[in-house]
Amino acid sequence: MINEILNSITFIYPELAVSIFLLIIVLVDLVFHKDKKYIPYISLAGLVITGILVLNQIGITHFAFVPQLSAVKKYGMMTIDPFGSYFKLLVVVTSILIIFFTIASEEVIDLKERLGEFHALIYGMILGMLVMISASDLILIYLSLELLSLSSYVLAGFLKLRERSSEASLKYVIYGSVSSGLMLFGISIIYGLTGSTNLYVINSLIQGPQINLFTLSFSSILMFVGIGYKISAAPFHFWTPDVYEGAPISITAYLSVASKAAGFALLIRFIQTGFTSFISEDGYWTLIAVFDWQALLIAISILTMTLGNFSALWQDNLKRMLAYSSIAHAGYILLGIAVLSNQGLIAVLIYFFVYMLMNIGAFYVVMLISNKTGSENIDDYDGLGAKAPFLGVALAIFLISLTGLPPTAGFIAKLYLFIALIDANMIVVAIIALLNTVVSLYYYVRVLKHMYLTKSEREQENITPSIGSLVYLLVLLIPILFFGIYFTPIVEFARSCVSLLGI
Amino acid sequence: MNTIPMEYYLLISAFMFSVGVTGVLIRRNAIVVFMCIELMLNSANLALVTFSSFLGDPAGQVFVFFVMTVAAAEAAVGLAIIIAIFRNKLTVNIDEINIFKW
Amino acid sequence: MLTEFGKIFIFLLLAIGFVGIALFAAKLIRPHRPTKEKLLIYECGENVEGSPWVKFNIRFYVVALIFLIFDVEVVLLFPWALTYQEFGFYGFLVGVIFLLILGLGMAYEWRKGDLNWDRTKPNIPELSKILTNKNVSNVKIDEQIKES
């Protein structure tokens, strides 16, 4: 038993590194509480180390923390597999980008005294996400989800003197607690039905004939509420625009990419290890005939992207518009899961990589402009194309990529998604998604229209970004343009990371 | 020796859960809403302990310990946020906390 | 044969009986000399009369929150205490690490000043020419009794 635990620890080095650096940040914050300007660099160093540890794990497939009690088969509480490593890498890279983001953001620079807490809470979120991605036990799933949520509640309301920030935080905490309460009730019912909290054991038990189908469906839906709130799927998305608008921009960008990625990883793992009986040669998953996940996911994803896109049409605040656009993107990604095939999974992995680059980029430009003008309103973007040529072009490329038009990587992501849909004979769904993309074109182009075609009524000074910001934007822009033309590397990488630790 | 059947515990748990959900939906005071959320979590706890005891499996009881800790942390974060919003708006009525609209 | 509920019922009867007998016995034995101060309900130093919606010092909430978290986290030590001996030194180490992290949280609160009570400076009454310091305090106490 003790050997198993000691052995398992070697498989959770990334999580351990994050925990240790979390403690280091708190300690440094306490000991040197006069001078806080080193804290961002400490957290960067921690993330780089974590990233290297995650890179070392790519390709490893292993169960960690196998309880000695389960006599028949050895299933662990955590699963280390290429799929999980891909998402962990994504989370760590996003976190590194976000730390650079906060270094440039006026809102965060103004915190001064509370910088230590800010970074410690970001580390709490990272720890929650990393554990959530590889958790294959309901206890661990619930705990990591809560760790992620609790840290992000506080971060959303971190600008406590700003009324909007507090209100966003309150809404977030109420919606979040209710949905996690529903999820916990679902978990308790699943536990009562099967007598186990391990997804693999649950999988083998619900294949038996004596399972009460109604109860199982009910508890599955309750579970989905908890996950759906994290990925802001349609009926549970009400918090998203408010929180994204009220939170500091860096946190908004972080929530829209990293915490969504972790939620999706959890959903995929939950469906695949909990409800799939086998995977055929050509990569299609056959679900256990207890609950029709495919119908639920398709319905939710269509609802999500339609609501997201149509609500985004009349938003004047850019942060809020990007929030609705991120809801719509969650809908597209859900479609990739609803295909229930390895091909759909590859599409999801590619989509997330591209989504990370373009979404953080768009938020970064919004942040730079609001640093200068103090506003995120679309009317203040009038004539910005002339005042800030580089920022204008950068934002244009990010928005075009978010729409999914050809010379950018956003197109490749959507292309793979549609290929997966058509391959699975889901033509109608593909057409609905395509129409949604057309709708989304309108509100993205509206921003461009304001920037390039509308003359500003007020005199504005030119906005010239600093060298650091230029480099940051180039780091995001070059991959978007490069992978838009030559996309074999990410596709190959995603293909190699698609395998989950099987049944 | 007849014991209390499992259904009784589960019925109480379901009842508590319904009270919690209803309270969250209809009450307007943020603190009462948090109390209702605690009720939801505790109803799940009751169900977990019941199952754990009737299945003879300790995992459920360990889970309850963790849920209790999480519930306390959630209450602490929630109360801290309520204090922050009270300082800004001088109210904890959810209907009056409404800058954000569609 | 008693059911489980029957046992609870007997327990209830015993509990009620015990309290009743104890109160009755105390009534017989104790001296009866009520004063105003004694009749006041004791409630943690707060005034008990008036509207229940008085504003507490916000410090109470902060201390309560801190207490709540540490109090509940100690619950996690119970399962550990039951099993750590099986794991020898490593089992012990896990508990130590857990307590160290809790200690770090405590140190954090201490350093950030959340445990300081921020005492308001005592409002020393200006000595009037007639009354000595001692008299002032006596007068104050008398006033408080009258008010309550």
Report what the structure shows:
The complex is a heterotrimer of chains A (503), B (102) and C (148). Chain A is 73% helix and 3% strand. Chain A has 21 helices and four strands. Chain A has helices at residues 2-9, 13-31, 39-57, 82-104, 106-109, 115-134, 138-156, 163-194, 199-205, 213-230, 239-246, 249-275, 293-312, 318-338, 342-373, 384-387, 389-403, 409-423, 427-452, 467-485, 488-496; strands at 62-64, 78-80, 276-279, 285-287. In chain A, helix 6 (115-134) runs antiparallel to helix 7 (138-156), helix 6 (115-134) runs parallel beside helix 12 and helix 9 (199-205) runs parallel beside helix 12. Chain C has 148 residues and is mainly alpha-helical. Chain C is 62% helix and 0% strand. The longest helix of chain C has 26 residues, at 4-29. The chains are: A mainly alpha (503), B mainly alpha (102), C mainly alpha (148).
Secondary-structure map:
The complex is a heterotrimer of chains A (503), B (102) and C (148).
Chain A: H1 2-9, H2 13-31, H3 39-57, E1 62-64, E2 78-80, H4 82-104, H5 106-109, H6 115-134, H7 138-156, H8 163-194, H9 199-205, H10 213-230, H11 239-246, H12 249-275, E3 276-279, E4 285-287, H13 293-312, H14 318-338, H15 342-373, H16 384-387, H17 389-403, H18 409-423, H19 427-452, H20 467-485, H21 488-496
Antiparallel strand pairs in A: 1-2, 3-4
Chain B: H1 6-26, H2 30-55, H3 59-89
Chain C: H1 4-29, H2 36-39, H3 58-73, H4 77-83, H5 88-111, H6 133-147
